[in-house]
Amino acid sequence: MATKSKRATAAERAAYDVEAEWTPADLALLEELKKAEALLPEDAPRALLSVRLSVFTDETTSPVRQELDLRLHAREKGFRVVGVASDLNVSATKVPPWKRKSLGEWLNDRAPEFDALLFWKLDRFIRNLSDLSVMVQWAERYGKNLVSKNDPIDLSTTIGKVLVTVIGGIAEIEAGNTSTRVTSLWEYAKTQDAWLVGKPAYGYVTEEGKDGRPRLAVDPDARTALHWARRMALRGRSARFMVRCMVRSGLMSEGLTTTTLLRRLRNPATLGYRTEEHKNGGVRRSRFVLDRQGKPIWVAPEIFTQEEFDSLQAVLDGRSRKQPTRQPGGATRFLGVIVCADCKGHMLVKKTSNKGRSYSYMRCTDCKSGGLGVPAPDALYLALSQRLLKALGSFPVQVREYAEASEARSEVKRLKESAAYYMKELEPGGRYAPSAFAREQAQATLDKLLKDLDAVDPVTLQDRWENVHNGETWRERWESGGLEALEEDTRRVGIKCEVTRTKVKGQRAPDVSLRVLLPKDARDRLVIKEDAFAVEL
């Protein structure tokens, strides 16, 4: 009879310490492997180890075991280990290698530092065939090798290139089967009055029922908070006021926002029925899950009666404002760049209507009542653009490119071997020793080889990133790309624009002044780093 794997709880996973998993025997083996690496020649291939684990169970291979197995495999292959990219609690199905926190940094920014990427098993590295194809293309483009410890995968061999696609397809099929089983479980759970999977809605906790099945019970503290918020809403209090009071009193946790509070108050799950999230035009709402007879499924005691819930919704509907249709890029340009000089909060564009006319203005997110409003946001954008063009527009646009040094290293190796040959044959008893003419010609050739070796720049012998001028200035790039290009680059570089508003007597609109703050390394940050993993559609 098969045994069931024991999954670690969320708390246990959070508390998992890889360092604590190393036993004295593991540490002794690690030290032995490092000593063996020290004996490798300088030009030994460099290996990066990729360790990944999505869920800790009794049957999974621990990160320590994966690393030691990979180090043993590296020793067999003659690789020098230069780093370990460890990503725990990361799904290979949902997160591709280049987007993982540890491995992603190596792949995107530290590619010159290794020659081969070693992983324990393909399904530990990747589970999506399209992601695998992208990684193979990346490896071929940058001259890297992909090597698996427990699969016959090695891009340096023809059979390895063929098998990587075959095994990748099998891994994707296994991942698809897992996804199907999980989806089926969720669909089944929605039809049950017991709470089998998932996180309960706010206001409820799980407990074991009389029949031994997990049931939902009301959280007393959450019920108190929701009913207090309802009473405040009926008295006309704002959601911002309620959030401030509940956070200070401890009824709800810090980080609570008005959006979260309103979503909790509008959730029909507080009536005791099973609900699911429904998105309609960007608006997130919860709706009832119906059984086969078209009736809501009761799963818990009610927090609000139907009358209490309906009266609360009526009040919330009356206070809600009809917002204009959301623009694809948002109403605010240079979001995160334009900030308030007083509180450093973001400046946001708000829209209002009066007598059939629409007006736009900017206000602060943190100042009381939004601070003094800035009329005509477009004029502010224009002033910021002009200052950026003046400060950075004349600089050349540079693009980061990968420079592989394999040809340079091969040429240096040829020069050294040729020089060694002529030095040996010029010695007494060598082939050039008897003849003065032959000796003179050989010496001239040797001098030329040594001169060529001295002229070699050591930097060119290492794989590296190089910044190459693409032939245009930043002014030309921004003028052709428009405000969108300028906004994207400004945010990427980390430029800030502080806005100061000064009240003018007898004038409704304040006096506005700007202060543009450029990072000291702004020119380095401006370098365009192309996405090596972008998929062309």
TrEMBL record:
Instruction: Name the SMART domains on file.
Output: Resolvase
MF terms in GO: DNA binding; DNA strand exchange activity
The protein's matches in Pfam families, at most eight in alphabetical order, are given as:
Resolvase
Q: Does the keyword DNA-binding apply?
A: yes
- Looking at the record, the residues that make up the Resolvase/invertase-type recombinase catalytic domain are 46-193
Q: Which UniProt keywords apply?
A: DNA recombination, DNA-binding
| Presence of the UniProt keyword DNA-binding in the record | yes
Q: Which residues form the Recombinase domain?
A: 201-322
Q: Which PANTHER family match?
A: DNA-INVERTASE FROM LAMBDOID PROPHAGE (PTHR30461), SERINE RECOMBINASE PINE-RELATED (PTHR30461:SF2)
Record's protein name = Serine recombinase
